[in-house]
Design brief:
Length: about 350
Amino acid sequence: MATAKPARAASGVDPREFHRTTIVIDALGGGLMAPGPGGSKPPFWQWKEGGLTALNVTVVARFARFLEALRAIYASHTILEAYPEDLLLARRGSDLARAHREGRTGVILGFQGAAAMEDDLTNLTIFHRLGIRIIALTYMERNLLGDGCLEPENRGLTHLGRQAVCEMNRLGIVVDLSHVGERTSLDACEISGAPVALTHSNPRRLCDSPRNVSDELIRAVARTGGVIGITPYAPTLSPTPKAGTRSTMEDLLRHIAYVVDMVGIEHVGIGTDMFEAKGATEWNSTTKRRYPESVGAYEHANLRTTGFESLSQWPAVTERLLAAGYSTEDVAKIVGGNWARVFARVWDSGPDL
């Protein structure tokens, strides 16, 4: 898809040049896919075009089991090995700076849902050793650790869930609360000894979606030192999600400003949830069919925010933030600096590899 080149922002800063000198991190960017047939460009060309320093890619989600996760991690490593000049596995905070310095894209391996741990905490050590650095406790529904955001009973962390949070703290794995139930998330914030993250969630007060989060939870995440990743995913960003209205860049800026005003610039980032390789057929047969309450009237064609339909358009976000009057220092925090700080703090606290 052809993308328009961002103009200079009102500040006079060229957004693409800004990305070349600033760490830019997408806290949930999609998946790591092998190139298609016929010598087509690898699906991660958009990452380069968008000036991304690093992004969190989903290895497994939902109710994947232990062996399924191991196979998926293996598949991710084969791609990383095939493109050493383009990609770098991010295990420590220094890897983010290295990726930026060397012009590569740092790949952060993550799980959307901790079901692959099964009932054995020792599996978390195996995952950590294989490079997993972010794990969401649940994905929409209940698992052995706690409730997902769609569970009507809204129960808290189980005893195993509490153990898992503490073990993730010990290992240096970021606890992600996107898709996690309210009570389970608040429990995790209370017991975590490390910053936790909402990698791709928006304030429910601005968009009434079950995938979004309360002001109480936003404040709780910030109190841990964590970051809230505002997402351009339309069902969680539009002011009228039940009507299936496509979101705009103005909506994105409004959500960012709301959280900045509530908890401060140091606790705001971006996570796009932009799985560009996931086509309409796959989305309709999985997300829309399984979780209609989370997507409502939306179709695949209008899931993304106008003006931010591809990861290659990341500079447009930077341009709009600068034009809105944010200083270059604050923009640098929102587009990646805050994530870099939190990821380094959590990852570097873990045991040596």
